[in-house]
Amino acid sequence: MYSLVKRQAEAEIFPLAISEGLGVMTYSPVGGGLLSGKYGPDSRPDSGRLMSNQEYISRYGEDWVFDTAGKFSQLAKEQGVHPVSLAVAWAAKNPAVTCPIIGSRNLDQLQPSLAAIDIEMSAELYAEIASLSRTPPPATDRLEEQG
């Protein structure tokens, strides 16, 4: 799993993959739909899997996740792109990611994911997007090793 709101792979999996020349296919670049533009700190629908499925509530239920989704949606709007396109492009830009696995329930949901290929993801835009969410903690509890 890898998205703007689920970045734990950056702590151990991605450094290992880069070090050993391994490919990584990630999934859920839109965070279960959280980064689709429908959610934000004041935009939480009454129904849907993010609100009713206990697994999704556990995974995405914290306030900071919805705050990040709102900021991300605003940035996508400023960039003139669909939030889903931007979420997929951001996940794909990580040098450890071979490809993100996309998912959709219908053709209308698939189109924005496919449009990610048309986004010019500069290093500056990548960093700006990354700054909207929490950086995962180091993979070690020995902070003195972090130099």
What is the structure about, briefly put?
The chain contains seven helices and two strands; from the N terminus they run αβααααβαα. It is mainly alpha-helical and 147 residues long. The longest helix has 17 residues, at 63-79.
Walk me through what this model shows.
This protein is mainly alpha-helical and 147 residues long. The protein has one domain (8-131): NADP-dependent oxidoreductase domain (TIM Barrel, Alpha-Beta Barrel). It is 43% helix and 6% strand. It contains 7 helices and 2 strands. The chain has helices at residues 13-20, 49-52, 54-60, 63-79, 83-93, 107-114, 123-130; strands at residues 24-27, 97-101. Strands 1-2 form a two-stranded parallel sheet. The mean pLDDT is 91.
Per-chain topology:
Layout: H1 13-20, E1 24-27, H2 49-52, H3 54-60, H4 63-79, H5 83-93, E2 97-101, H6 107-114, H7 123-130
Parallel strand pairs: 1-2
Q: What are the key terms here?
A:
single chain; 147 residues; mainly alpha; TIM Barrel; two-stranded parallel sheet; 7 helices; 2 strands; globular
How many strands? 2
Kindly report how far apart the N and C termini lie.
28 Å
CATH topology tier name: TIM Barrel
- CATH superfamily (homologous) name: NADP-dependent oxidoreductase domain
Q: In this structure, how is the largest beta sheet organized?
A: 2 strands, parallel
Q: What is the chain-wise order of helices and strands?
A: HEHHHHEHH
